[in-house]
Amino acid sequence: GGEAGGGGANADGGGGGGDKWDKGSDAGESSAEGSQAASGITTSTDMQSGTELIIDSRRCRLLKALTKQLAGPVLMTPMERLRLHSYLLLAVMVATHVVAYIVMTVLISEQYHDINLVHRQALAMDRSQLIAVRAMMGAFCERANVTDKVSVCANSLNFTMNKLRENVNLMEKHHQYVFFGDSRNSIMKLMPEVYDIWTSHQLEYHSYLDTAQPRVLTAFGGAWVLGNRYIAAAREALYWLPNIREKYRLHRTYQFLIDNGLGPLFVAYAKSLDLLVDSAWRAVDQLRIALITLLVVEPLFVQCCCLAYEWILVQRLERARLMGILAMVGLPAPVLRQLATKEAKVLDDSDDDDDDGDSDNDDGGEREGGASGGASGNEKMLATAAQDDVRAGGGGAAADANLTAGGGATAAPPRPLKFRSVKKSEPFPQSDASPMKGGRRVRTPPDAADGTTSDLVRADPPGVGEVVPELPPGARRSSWSPDGKRPPAATSTATAARIASDTPTGGVVGMPLRRGSRDGGSIQPRNKGESHARGLHINGKQLVPSAATVTKFMVPFVLWNMALVIVYVVSLLQLNAMQGPLASLNMASHIIYRYTRVRAIAFGLVSQDDVTSRSLWREMLRTELRYFESEYDALMYGGIPITQLDSVFKHSVPASTFASTSFAYEFFRNKRCFRYDQEECLHTGDEYFEVTHNGLDVMVRRMLAEMNLLVADADEDIVTRGYNGTRYMYMYKVGGNDLYEGLQQAAQLFVDYSISRYDQVGTLHTILLAVTIVLVLLYLLFVLWPHLARLQKDATRQSALLSHVPPEVDVRSHVRAVFKRTIAWQKGGRALAGRGRSAAATAAGMGAATSGSGNGGSLAAGA
After folding, report:
1. pLDDT of residue 60
2. Which phi and psi angles does 861 have, rounded to 5°?
3. Would the CA dihedral through 399, 404, 409, 411 be positive or negative?
4. pLDDT at 450
5. How far apart are CA 723 and CA 490, in angstroms?
6. Measured between alpha carbons, how far is 511 from 837 in angstroms, rounded to an integer?
7. Under DSSP, is residue 347 helix (H, G, I), strand (E, B) or coil?
8. How many alpha carbons lie under 13 Å from residue 164 in its C-beta half-sphere?
């Protein structure tokens, strides 16, 4: 009966039970069977051969209840928070990177457009000069007095018309590209200053009217209108030149092309080019500032905040995981010793086993039965541990003392048991499970701290007003020091048992007490700061979060953040070297159109009939040669040319000869032919073969020498040896193809170099985006999801191990008490000493409850 068992356990059944537990005799089998019937466990105790526990349906219900506790809200809440918030953090990080990638892509595409805009503006200027050259050549070579068909006049009129048509088409394409952009679906508006040059009515130009009385009409417009009228006049030349031939030089379109092509249109294009280069230069600065902003916002702010929050989530989950381990290592040392020597199999759970009546809020024990089974069994375990401590201690008063349990029955010393000694802070070893037919074989872990006992208390706290008893004289007060370390001489289990037997209210044995502590010192951090940093301390054991787990979660984020910083830094370094090539591209573009202008003015000089006109063209050629030489020297050896002293863009040009190996090779060491059509190249033996196959610099210097000589020639020499003289013959044989096409290829080097650097930056960010998406998937597949699954599996295995705790210990109340106290300590940030009762007061309340209730046999292992 419950009342009989509870009240008479010490008098009748307690001592016999203790003898049967310690001695392992067959005479006490009936009492053991009564305890087994009350607990639902079938056992056969034999200290000589070992013990095997076979778990029945009640054990399965206990396993389900423990699983609900260990894998319940305490663990699942931070686990779900980590899972869901990790999804959110990854989404935020990836979205931020995608936005940064889009911003980078847009900015780089704008740089593409700016570079192409500068180059295409220079090509539009170049083609406008070539249109004027071909118009003058076509009209001049069709004169009746031009009988020597050499030099430029060796070409047929059809050849000249084809070249004129090609130049008109190319100029129209470049002209429209600058104003409209390269997309047919969208128009990229020019910068305000450039747009004003192209659209305002500030540009003055002249229109020639071939009426009965010829007139010159002055008009105003922008570069867009003037360029279109220039292209229209050139298309009219394609009709009038073959029809009227030499008289075309008297036509209004001829006058429009020569005056406006070499005058107002060229000036407007030059201003537009300077503004475009200046805008591209400032765009590089803006891109660099945008990269720095993205570097601060994405890797240093967003990613770091996500990293810190992920660390907090992992730490919270680790603390929740430690609670289950805390419930394991917080068991009394005798229980841990017994579990270390037991092997059992957990039967498969059945659907008809329902634990509706065994909720986590029950304050009673899991196993029903007499109090004698619980009390005497606990005392027997403690007596065994005490006897072992006495024998290990080597005699003394404690060795000769009779250990009493409950009502004072003498417990005969059993055969000494030997246990392995584990260091106080040694981590709790993992249990290993092996498959077994009909269930799972679980080997309980060995004792984690030998010689350290935990408090066995009720789940119910003592009533208000209960007196905390003082310890007898000579008893050691505490196994804890104020700093959380175990003192050298800890109170033994035998001493604790003797103190409990002398307690007036009876009850169970408690942990060694610490003065001023109301919870028996079960969980005691070292101090407020150190406990949070190093984890929880219980029974001489230290539980800290797994550094490997935290590292596993944090390392991918840290590496990703470092990769972002490295990519942004490399991008900044790439962009820092972009303004120099841009200045070189601008100067190479100047060289292209300046050389074409020199060709046009030189032919205008040799084709004039009167002295006044030749003097005017001579001065124009002298000025253009000076400009060309200054710009060419600035391109090759650095500096600012004289043409940029009053312009908007006044940045110094780097020395391309020393800055670019490929550029220096093209100008000084390349022995190839520079013509696009290699079949038209000059062959060995030609008088100009050597000059055309020794680099561009030789051809440029020879051209400057020949044109300076042409400027210095007398009028008579120009008349007699003009277009067919050696001066202009070099321009026709070399300058028209080899030199012109070589300069085009040299300018393209800077365009290709600049675009390739931007391509490298864009490719780097594209690779980083692809790697980011792959790493996110790998993080989910190999880090987050396996870790959460392992925690659930570990909680289930811990429940299986705790289900093997002897029936005398109310393991459910023990787990619940550990969870409550740990959560309270974590929330309050303080020790649990002020939130419980002392073990002696609990024992006193336990004895009162045992004497007045039949359910007093349920004990809780206080942690």
Report:
1. 82
2. -85, 105
3. negative
4. 40
5. 117
6. 12
7. strand
8. 31
On the 0-12 / 13-18 / 19+ scale of CB atoms within 10 A, 533 is exposed
Nearest CA-CA partner of 569 in 314, 857, 765, 333: 765
Helix/strand/coil percent split, the chain, to 5? 65, 5, 30
- Per-residue pLDDT band for 319 (boundaries 50, 70, 90) equals confident
- Phi and psi torsions of 42, nearest 5°: -100, 120
Neighbours of 560 (CB within 10 A): 22
> Of 112, 88, 98, which is closest to residue 564 (Cα–Cα)?
98
- Take residue 189 and report the two structure tokens written for it: 């508006």
Confidence (pLDDT) at 94: 95
Distances in Å between the alpha carbon of 566 and those of 95, 161, 305?
A: 19, 57, 19
Intra-chain end-to-end CA distance of the chain, in Å: 31
Reading the block at residue 314, the tokens are 């992992």
Confidence at residue 70, expressed as pLDDT on a 0 to 100 scale: 87
Q: What's the confidence (pLDDT) of residue 534?
A: 54
Q: Which of 834, 802, 840, 805 is nearest to 821 (CA)?
A: 834
Provide the 3-class DSSP secondary structure of residue 5.
helix
pLDDT-above-90 percentage for the chain: 48
Write the CA distances from 407 to 502, 506, 847, integer angstroms. 10, 8, 12
* Nearest to 836, CA basis, from 597, 521, 610, 577: 521
Contact partners, residue 711, CB within 8 Å, separation at least 6: 605, 618, 621, 622, 625
Tell whether the torsion through CA atoms of 232, 237, 240 and 244 is positive or negative.
positive
Q: Is 190 helix (H, G, I), strand (E, B) or coil?
A: coil
Q: Are 26 and 44 in contact (CB under 8 A)?
A: no
- Count the residues in the chain: 863
Distances in Å between the Cα of 695 and the Cα atoms of 286, 427, 658, 749 are 38, 78, 16, 15
Task: Please answer whether residues 63 and 353 qualify as being in contact, where contact means their C-beta atoms are separated by less than 8 angstroms.
Answer: no
Q: How is residue 831 annotated by DSSP?
A: -
Nearest to 542 by CA among 555, 551, 529, 533: 533
Q: What is the mean pLDDT of residues 682-696?
A: 93
The closest alpha carbon to 792, from 30, 4, 71, belongs to 71
Beta strands at 52-54 and 343-347: parallel, antiparallel or unpaired:
parallel
CB 290 within 8 A of CB 575: no
3-class state of residue 439 by DSSP: strand
Q: Is 158 exposed, middle or buried (0-12, 13-18, 19+ CB in 10 A)?
A: exposed
Query: What is the structure's pLDDT at 168?
Result: 97
Query: Rounded to 5 degrees, what are φ and ψ at 380?
Result: -65, -40
Q: Mapping DSSP to helix (H, G, I), strand (E, B) and coil, where does residue 69 land?
A: helix
The 10s digit of each residue's pLDDT in 201-220 is 888 999 998 888 888 999 99
Strands (E), 535-604: 536-538, 541-543
Contacts of 504 (CB under 8 A, 6+ apart): 469, 844
Tell me which residue of 543, 528, 577 sits closest to 757, measured CA to CA.
Answer: 577
* Burial class (CB within 10 angstroms; exposed 0-12, middle 13-18, buried 19+) of 354: exposed
Q: In the predicted model, what is the mean pLDDT of the chain?
A: 74
CA 768/CA 299 separation, integer angstroms: 13
More confident residue, 534 or 476: 534
- Per-residue pLDDT, 720: 81
> Nearest Cα to 175, choosing from 257, 231, 129, 113?
231
pLDDT digits (tens, 9 = 90+) for 548-594: 888 999 999 999 999 999 999 999 998 888 899 999 999 999 999 99
Pairing assessment for the beta strands 343-347 and 215-221 based on DSSP bridges: unpaired
Is the pLDDT score of 689 beyond 90? yes
Q: Helices 73-141 and 547-576 sit at what angle, rounded to 10 degrees? A: 10
Closest CA to 594 of 703, 715, 722, 689: 703
Helix (H) or strand (E) holding 221: strand 215-221
